[in-house]
Amino acid sequence: FVINWTFDDGNGNIITVQQNVVVEDTEAPTIPVLPVLTDQCMVTVSIPTTEDSCSGTIAATTTDPLVYDDQGNFTITWNFDDGNGNSIDVIQQIVISDTEAPEFTSSLPSSTLEVECDAIPEPEELTATDNCGDVTISVNDVIREINDNCPNSYIIERTWTANDGNGSSVSHTQLITVKDTKAPVPTTVFDEELDVSCTDIPEIPELEFTDNCSSNITKSFIETSTYQEDVFEDYQIVRTWIVRDECMNEATYTQTLNVALDEFVFQIDAGEECFDDGIIDLNGYLPSDMNLNGTWEMLQGDIQATLNGNIFDPSNIELSFDFLPDDGGIDYLFRYTTTNVNEDYNGESIAGCTNVFEVSLNINADCVVLPCGQKDVVVSKAITPNGDAFNENFEIAGIELCGFTYQVKIFNRWGALVYESDDYQNDWNASSSSSAIGTAGKLPNGTYYYIINIKDSGLEPFTGPVYIGTK
């Protein structure tokens, strides 16, 4: 600049003098102290100012961005220019550091959980939020073994981690104890209880089993029965399956058969035997493999014969008009009751049932020769019809069963006929048709003579004396 100075002394003397003025700003703006700008997520930078001795307050300029939303350390170079050719550069530090962890916003699973090995839950879907933005949630399962001799028991350490991507995270851990406490179960449908006949006992069903966790299943089977030979009662069969998995979980399944002891009746014709041939073992008429511990009964026949267990003795039967040679004999019916374990008889399944054998047997006297000879005839030597029940009648004995007809004539000692019969029945007691003879219609005491002719016997007539004592 040029300043023209005028000097006037007041007297009219004036001079002009030029003065050169040089104004030159050589002092840079004041260097400001810029703070380090920090934030969790984002920094928006305000333009700083400083003071200049000439220009006053001046604002800085920069070519760097003013907004920072990435994590990290940044610098801004600020230029302060006073417009007089004096300028300074000042560095400002920007620090964005997310130190705040995310937060779960959903309900968290329980810290511990115990489940069956076939009921392990899927991880729950959790949500979280973060102060700076999006959150990534991950789930990780770590398996830890349990030393309890069960391959299906272990612990799952399940961890959910919410990560904000800026180095901050939060996690939640759930310990899932996995156990195998369930025993195998059948996959085969079967009846647990059945009412059956002893003739129709079903086959043992082939049961298949499955387990919730184990593929290795141990299976055992037993069958028990209350059946007893020679006990004629319904009985029960119990079939038992015992199954066990790898973790020793055991279950028992049963099928109970209520067995009705049905009765099978079989007819056996044993033919005929002579009563005099000795004792008969009735077991000999039964099938060779039959249970011989049963019971024999005699249902029909002459009770003179005896039955002791399986031994039948007909030798006690006495010959009579109802039991003679060649008269057809006596029909006996025996009943043998037993139980049997054989599979079948005559094509019928009888195992475990009541078996009845009705044995028909004819006992005759065909092996006996009746005593019908001359020497077999016995004639009364005396009769005493006095009411004492001894020797009351004139009798012809010894050949009663031979079926002959007796013609009898009685004579007194003078040869007079006192009694005659063409079909004598051993019923004459010295009675007389003439009231004049003897007393009370009886012949008088004395010796009389008889002539006996046995018709169609081939025997010679019998003659001899008989004494009659009527007093």
Please give the structural blueprint.
Elements: E1 2-8, E2 14-20, E3 37-39, E4 43-44, E5 49-52, E6 56-59, E7 67-68, E8 72-81, E9 87-96, E10 103-104, E11 112-116, E12 128-129, E13 136-145, E14 154-163, E15 169-179, E16 185-186, E17 193-197, E18 209-210, E19 218-225, E20 235-244, E21 250-260, E22 263-274, E23 280-281, E24 295-300, E25 306-308, E26 311-313, E27 330-339, E28 344-345, E29 348-349, E30 354-364, E31 378-379, E32 382-383, E33 396-397, E34 405-411, E35 417-421, E36 446-455, E37 462-468
Parallel strand pairs: 3-9, 11-15, 17-21, 22-30, 32-37
Antiparallel strand pairs: 1-2, 4-7, 5-6, 8-9, 10-12, 13-14, 14-15, 16-18, 19-20, 20-21, 23-26, 24-27, 25-26, 27-30, 28-29, 31-33, 34-35, 34-36, 36-37
Protein name: Gliding motility-associated C-terminal domain-containing protein
Pfam family, one: CHU_C
InterPro entries: T9SS_type_B
